[in-house]
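Board notes (copied after class):
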Amino acid sequence: MQQVKKNLLHILANCLSFFLSLIVITPIFVLLINSFKTAGEANSMSLALPKVWMVENYKTVIEQGKLVTSFLNGFFYAICSVTIIVAVVSAAAFVIGRNREGVNRFIYYYIIAGIAMPINTLALMKVMQLLQLMNTRLGIILIYAAINIPLSLFLSYGFVETIPREIDEAAIIDGCKPFQLFRIVILPLFKPILSTLFVLNFMTVWNDFMMPLYYLNNSNKWPMTLAVYNFFGVFENSWNLVSADIILTLVPVLIIFILGQKYIVGGVAAGSVKG
């Protein structure tokens, strides 16, 4: 009886997972199908297959939507900001995690308070103008790094506890200096959580819309999210082209997610260890 109940729950869980998957996959499938239709066919946004597959829609989008430039911009912002996040968070998590008392404890709680704190757009804009970072690539990269460091540190902080202190002691006895200890011994052990942070933060930066809208006024510096927004304003009646534009924007982040999903699960589970 207990086995039957267990099998029934397993079937129900699979059915629920299948239903939830359809909710996510169906809109993407609709966009994909309509991206190959003519403008007239795509207006209904139906699931019907196109009568003629208009592959040239993608050529039109790439040429008129400035997607090559916006792709390179978005990729540059994501890679640079994620590199800063990973470098800063890995070092901070190790130092704070190994010495959790006094000022280190205060610094940790001060930083992770940023998870709950809302972004004051007006104040941040004034700071950016004062530092002459408004409408610059460096400015938007630093904003992304600052916004995503709190949550990244929170995840990394718990992971430090899974690394035995005996490893530190053995390395010090062998003559390792503090920086050598971190770079040669500890950093390779951070691979699971750093892989997770890379994937999660890359997806966050790539999909962000608000920060470039506020702090980048030059269309030549826009990432793909703003390029889609601008493209929709010009071709709002051509749903086939809009769908193709959205699909091209989704492809990079989907690839990153598919390749890194195992690291997300493993890294978040490892980072959830109570410190």
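Comment from the instructor: The radius of gyration is 23 Å. The chain is about 75% helix and 0% strand.
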